Amino acid sequence: MSEQISINIAGVCVLRDTFGLHKNDGGYKIKKYSSSFAPLYIKDEPYDMDYEKYLNVTVGIQPNFTRRNVFMDITKKSMGWVLDEKSDYILVDVGLLRTDYIQLYNGQLYYGGYKSIFETLDKEGMIPKISGIKPFDFMPDEELRNRLQEYFSKILEVYPVDKIILVEVKNVFEKVNLDNYLMSNFQDSTTVKAKNQNIWLDKCFKYSKEILKGCHIIYFPENVLGDENHHLKPAPMHYTQEYYDYALQAIDIICREKLSSDEEMYRLENLRNSYSEKYKMLREQMIMSSPQMQNWIKKKNNGHRYAKNAMNFCFEVMMDTLDKKSIFLPFVLSLRGKNIAVLASSCKAGDIF
Question: Greater confidence, 212 or 316?
Fold first, then answer.
């Protein structure tokens, strides 16, 4: 049996779940995984803190994994810890850059996903006072690019570009419950911020591709859905199992097949297209099988000798739900392409997508 390919990970939980949601981590050896840190500030001055005291003060606030990550962010050890034990490949993304920053009175910024830990440390006098929250997208383009360059240069000191896998991650705006065939939108406030985050992530990803020119890239498929029953919780970056199957297959192509650059890009694009289509079909199946649609069909068919075709059903559903934020609208528009301009002009701004 061939030796296991080893992987280090620096990024959001999407990367770790790509392995963890498959038996035996998909056949790979995950050496180290670092998350919940601020990649753009890894070269800032570290803050000295006793680890044992930190653990005692923060016990019970968050899981041990999260507490460790926050400590390493404060002490600027996040990437040094990952890079100390080199693996065959390293997976990275820019997903951590969608999170607001905790700002202290000494001017330093930290990953803001776990404010409760910082509030406890503030209360115990272990850090300078918290001065506020800095929005994730406050940084001018030139500074963003320079700080991304600093971040990736740290990785490039250890890994050549052909051992780096850059994974594109995005927020999604709809989630499904496969137990009862219900599809729904995330809350309005969540969706508004998620869309703004995606704009920022697109820019960060673009700069990352330029800086890491020659690395392997796994692009995000179209039509991906969130999972209402995700093992962590429903969130715009917690997807259904299909995404993790896609990402693992993409990693297999990169790590196991040893293809030429052109062949690899061709295979990865075909794989992405196939999962984009798979998600489109899942959306259609969810909508047509949903209790709402089935009840509506029965209601509309009552007294009719022949059922109308599914396309016309969807069209009429849309016309019935124009004043609602209906999950059916994107699906209907994809089927009734000729009517997009007319229908879009009749819909409220929040109704489509």
Answer: 212
> CB 132: neighbour CB atoms within 10 A?
10
Give the pair of three-digit tokens for residue 200.
């920022």
Edge-to-edge order in the sheet of strand 182-185:
182-185, 174-177, 226-227
What are phi and psi for residue 111, nearest 5 degrees?
A: -55, 130
User: How is the chain split into domains, by residue range?
Assistant: 6-173+185-284, 290-346
Q: What is the DSSP letter of 24?
A: G
- Cα separations in angstroms, 207 against 8, 152, 157, 201, 237: 22, 11, 19, 10, 21
List helix spans (H) across the chain: 13-20, 51-58, 64-74, 78-83, 115-123, 141-156, 188-211, 241-256, 261-289, 291-301, 310-320, 328-335, 340-346
Q: Which two tokens stand for residue 345?
A: 């002009």
- The three-state secondary structure class of 99 is coil
Please state, as a whole number, how many other Cβ atoms lie within 10 Å of the Cβ of residue 94: 25
Picking from 282, 261, 280, 286, the residue whose alpha carbon sits closest to that of residue 221 is 280
Q: Is the pTM of this model over 0.70?
A: yes
CATH architecture of 6-173+185-284: 3-Layer(aba) Sandwich (3.40)
The reported pLDDT for the residue numbered 325 is: 46
